Amino acid sequence: VQLQASGGGLVQAGGSLRLSCAASGRTFSNYYMAWFRQAPGKEREFVASIRWSVGITSYADSVTGRFTISRDKVKNTVTLQMNSLKPEDTAVYYCAARLLQVSAYEYWGQGTQVTVSS
Q: Is 117 within 8 Å of 11 (Cβ atoms)?
């Protein structure tokens, strides 16, 4: 499995960014896809996930109502639409994948930096 994240950047508080993760190497029908983030000096944390086959989503409380995860089965991409960004959303964002029956995310893309200025 190869995951390639893109779309990070610098944005002012209240603004929006869209992250994209291009996935390849497998058929992902039996996978969860997710976004995690890691801020300086903090542990990596879960942001959002989506079950590839049926589109069921899950979000961290801190981003619920502001972020939306989606997938495109034709393009094999996972998108994280981030609205109403806050300075505390500043982090390196990673896309990840795991099989449905596996508890830990096994596959990781390289990170993409998101910086939100106040």
A: yes
Angstrom distances, CA of residue 85 to CA of 16, 37, 54, 67? 6, 14, 28, 9
Q: Which residues contact 118 (CB under 8 A, 6 or more apart)?
A: 13, 87
User: What is the C-alpha to C-alpha distance for residues 59 and 35, in angstroms, rounded to an integer?
Assistant: 10
Note whether 24 and 12 are within 8 A (CB). no
Phi then psi for residue 21, to 5 deg, are -130, 115
**Quick check: 51 and 32 in contact, CB under 8 A?**
yes
> pLDDT digits over 90-100, tens only?
999 999 999 99
Write out pLDDT tens, residues 1-43.
999 999 999 999 999 999 999 999 988 999 999 999 999 999 9
